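Field guide to reading this record: the first block holds the primary sequence, the second block holds the structure written as discrete tokens, and the final block holds curator observations. Each block starts with its own label. This record concerns Histidinol-phosphatase, catalogued under organism Apiospora kogelbergensis.

BLOCK 1 — SEQUENCE
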Amino acid sequence: MHSHSGQFCPGHAQDQLEEVIKHAISVGYKTIGLTEHMPRTDLEDLYPEELDEPEKSLAELAPRHEAYLKEAQRLQAAYASQIHILIGFEGEWLRPSYGPFIKSLAAEPCIDYFMGSLHHVNAIPIDYDSSYYQKAVASAGGTEEKLYERYYDQQFEMLQALKPLIVGHFDLCRLMSSDPERDVRQWASVWEKVVRNLQFVVSYGGWLECNTSALRKGMAEPYPCRTIAEEYLKLGGKFTMSDDSHGIAQVATNYKKGLEFLESIGVSHVWTLERTPQPGDAGNKKATLANKAVPVVDIKNFFD
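BLOCK 2 — STRUCTURE
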């Protein structure tokens, strides 16, 4: 339910979107959610590789998103007999002013859902490199505890404003931490904010993704980590499954480990969406979406 391609995420990902879909079919995927990054709207939000010609880089983002939606719909129809393709995007909550823009993107008839994601603290990237991460720490008050507090407060702002069906990499703040495996319950204020956010996600029917990209980035557990995942389950939360792939090489990466992790905390089913009508039948109206439970054991069979 969370994927990217080099075609529409240049600089961060590899491969054409169609090749990613064909590979997903070859490894047994029955459903794939396409979630290329949404366009950003301000020069200050560009990444270093976009700063050689900033105005040009910014001007390319919106047309690239439109091209993505057009290609995604073509592929959705072309491969309908082989795989169920959902069309979405990954939201970029840099500041509250992005809220109305994200809602406008989500209103497009072809969009089935979007990821509610946070990659920044105080509009500074926390998953780009250590230099940016340290800048974010400084902006939050100078300690990782303060950064975590700010991360979960800004995540809560996003959750309240958007109520995304799927919350992306819930605890991304630990990626570049000095201790990614720390038990955040040691920080009482941080843990209070974590539980508050989890309660809110459950209250409106949102899902967390079990995102296995944390494993390929060297962490011991997926996003979210065990402590948070167990608390979420106590609250009645539901998981979907994601590789957060950035090209063919990362499709289904560490899925077996991720599924075993879910089983170890008592998860028997993960959730996805089933859309009707079939591609091309809805005209200019949004498809109807139904929640669909998939047994974890059924997915594991593809990776044993």
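BLOCK 3 — OBSERVATIONS
DSSP finds ten helices and twelve strands in the chain.
The radius of gyration is 18 Å.
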